[in-house]
Design a protein that fits this description.
S-adenosyl-L-methionine; 84 residues; mainly alpha; single chain; binds S-adenosylmethionine; globular; two-stranded parallel sheet
Length: 84
């Protein structure tokens, strides 16, 4: 994610009172997902994912997010082919 974009949205995030729920990480996303997967407690613990970048690697995001998300919930992406 781009920090400038995050900061642009930050006033709205604060207004909504959800800033404490956001852990902003500025990093290539695949390596972050791999780090999350190293802790088994993270598996099946996420309710929602939205992917909107790095489109050539969407299959890799799908493989990792499938393990991190709670069963039967959706991975949303900006392309239809990886919606479940
Ligand atoms: C299409 S924009 C996403 C916009 C975002 N969905 C929003 O509504 O603000 C793509 C963003 O993903 C970031 N990005 C591109 N490749 C990335 C990657 N491999 N890992 C993490 N972020 C990446 C870019 O820096 C850019 O900020």
């Amino acid at each position: 994610m781009n920090k400038d974009t995050y900061e642009m949205g930050l006033p709205l995030i604060k207004k909504a009172g959800v800033e404490h729920k956001i852990n902003f990480i500025q990093s290539p996303a695949l390596s972050v997902l791999d780090e999350l997967l190293e802790d088994h407690e993270n598996r099946g613990s996420f309710a929602f994912a939205f992917v909107d970048a790095d489109k050539v690697n969407y299959q890799k995001y799908h493989e990792r997010l499938w393990q991190l998300l709670k069963a039967a919930l959706k991975i949303l992406s900006s392309r239809d082919e990886f919606k479940i």
